Amino acid sequence: MLVDVILPLPLEGLFTYSVSTVLEGKIQPFIRVKVPFGITKTHTALVVRSHHATSVDSNIKVKDIIDVIDEKPILLPEQYKLWEWISSYYMSPLGDILKAALPHGIRKEENYRPRTETYVSLAEKYADKQNLVEAISLLSRSPKQLEVFNIFLELTSHNQQVTREELMNETHCNTSVIRNLVVRKVLRLYDAEVGRLNNGGIPHFEKINPLSHAQQEAFDTISNFKKEEVKKPILLHGVTSSGKTEIYIHLIKEAIDRGEQVLYLLPEIALTVQIMQRLQNIFGDKLGIYHSRYSDAERVEIWQKQLSEAPYSVILGARSAIFLPYKNLGLVIIDEEHETSFKQQDPSPRYHARSVAMVMAQWAKAQVVLGTATPSAESYYNSQQGKYHLITLTERYKAIKLPHIQVVDVKDLRHRKIMSGLLSPQLREAVSEALHNGEQAIIFQNRRGFSPIVQCHQCGWSPKCPKCDVSLTYHKNTSSLTCHYCGYTYHMPNECPDCGNHELKDIGAGTEKVEDIIAEEFPYARIARMDLDTTRTKNAYERIISDFSAGKTNLLIGTQMVTKGLDFDNVSVVGILNADTMLNQPDFRAYEHSFNMMTQVAGRAGRKNHRGQVILQTSLPQLPVIQQIVNNDFEGFFSMLMKERQAFFYPPFTRLIYIFLKHRDENTVSSAATEYVSRLRVIFKNRVLGPDKPSISRINMLHIRKIILKLEPSMSIQKTRQCIREVTNALLSDPYKKSVIISFDVDPL
User: Fold this and answer.
1) Which residue among 255, 521, 549, 644 sits deepest, i.e. has the most Cβ atoms within 10 Å of its Cβ?
2) Per-residue pLDDT at 607
3) Rg of the Cα trace of the chain?
4) What is the spatial distance between Cα 609 and Cα 571, in angstroms, rounded to a whole number?
């Protein structure tokens, strides 16, 4: 017998191994096996299928598998079908998808260990209660031991298991007391496997809030759409704080009543904190949480539970949750569907979780609900073309008004010498008033660190990354200069290494510098900062958000993390420090991303008590997009955007594929890129753009060239990918170019 397996390596195709007669009976699809690879290496591979020797060239020597790891499959057939689709559509090897999909503890069989806990029980001699008198007599001269023993008996009086830690907590004793009871053969200790997953308790469906009239209409419309034989995705376009989450909760309850599973996708881990608490209060132990900040062991246990006979009814998670097993998927909710965080950038596979979830739902005949206050251009276009159903919520819950957005022209203020630093007088006054009134404020600056550039005042020296073509970012808290691309770090020098001058100035501002400025301006403020640097640990998000929700902090400074649907009752002011950094990005999506991000962050203001205020600082107040943000004019913005996209042939009027070539030698990658483009143009003509040097043309010692394919939507995706594969294989067959790294980004963001 032979088996075809996926190896956890970035290599195309499946690999074939033979199976000894001893192991034949243990082989089945989607179990793990240990296989040799190369001369000395071994890998944990996933079996896809078995077949007979006649299907393999007899001249090829096939190696034997070493061992079978699993007794039961760890993957459902539907999951593997999805892997194949991702591999084909996003032009990614199956090995990369295996690494992205499976928790590390499943990919490496020796890494996962079940969690155990030490329990206490009566020694065998005293299991018969008639002998307990003897035990008590034995302990009569050891008061502390006797006290612990009696409390133990109370705790176990109803056949309850007691852990050693619980007994120590109840009796305030140390380990030596329990050890002595074990030595005297009164108690015994044993280890038992316990789950790492939190038990949310019994569901409390009575905690579901009634819907408003507008919410009920939206809910009823979605329920009617669900009756359609072919279920179109539903785009729920509701302004910030219109109560979309409440509609989701009612839809989830309806799905659970039908015995279906629900996948609830969020773009950021930060969002799961607030939503998790809300859903857990209602759905209890029917809710499972899955994202990358969970330990690997926790993710393994969730995976195993989803394969069990009692899986979670609802999975709440970030993009990796699409890879979990679902036996009876009935509803997929993609909240904040416009968010770029749903797209995996590096490493491969560069999939978009929204697209993958929609394919998965289509196959399962499940309903998809896409929710957002600022739809992506592609999703809204699809709703206009009739591919999606569109439901609109135009008012906030309980008719609370949208925030008043005040545009501040910082260029004019600086010209008139009214403003010199980061804070305009308008923002300073608004924040001061909010804090004095016992309210909260959010300051948005979409750049982390203290300063993006450090420069010598005398000779102009500026520290650059030795591995990448970027300046190093100064982080004041750690007194370090760091590359945000490769992670290279070194200590901030006290003097210029070129001229010895001690005056090194920082240019520009990240969230760290903003925090310093705010602390100096408002010494009475209780400040928290939320960016990648302050949220590296598992519970950091939860701590920052819960402290702000509880009022322990009253001024939150953050990057785009603070824009993503967080719900705070007492925020009256939001400050956008610099809209220009987003608007001026060299990217055709810059205006779309800016509109979405600024509208979302503005929506954090005035959500419960009264109308909020937003101070938007920009030197480009005349731009139409600024007024569209102020007026919450999505229709006007979308109309303008579509005219531009159609004129310049960009999505949704075209499909894009970015092709990146990388090599340590710049001449080699330049030559390879030129040849690659020549081969592509034979097939795709003027649809090929490039090769170009990207704005950052060297990362981690690899020189980069970028090629863009602009393709009509009507072109066959399958044939296109086949042509690209052939061109790639032809280039890499050249021995001088075989070391060039070629990667693809399909539907880039």
Assistant:
1) 255
2) 57
3) 30
4) 9
User: What whole-number distance in Å separates Cα of residue 83 and Cα of residue 72?
Assistant: 19
Separation CA 481–CA 470 (nearest Å): 12
C-alpha distances in angstroms, 206 versus 213, 242, 245, 282, 283? 19, 22, 16, 8, 10
pLDDT number for residue 522: 94
At residue 117, the pLDDT reads 78
- The per-residue pLDDT for 697 is 94
Query: Edge-to-edge strands of the sheet including 367-372?
Result: 287-290, 314-317, 261-265, 329-335, 367-372, 234-238, 389-393
Give residue 197's pLDDT: 64
CA distance 671 to 663: 11
Give every CB contact of residue 110 below 8 A, 6+ residues apart in sequence.
Answer: none
Q: Which stretches of the chain score pLDDT less than 50?
A: none
Contact 264, 316 (CB under 8 A): yes
State the Cα–Cα distance between residues 219 and 230, nearest whole angstrom: 19
pLDDT tens sequence across 247-259:
999 999 999 999 9
Rounded to an integer, what distance in angstroms lies between the CA atom of residue 4 and that of residue 19?
A: 11
Q: Would you state the structure tokens that stand for residue 533, as one six-digit string?
A: 């640097």
pLDDT, position 646 = 95
**C-alpha dist (Å) from residue 356 to 9, 96, 154, 363:** 22, 16, 54, 11
CA distances in angstroms from 213 to 217, 243, 569, listed in the order given: 6, 11, 22
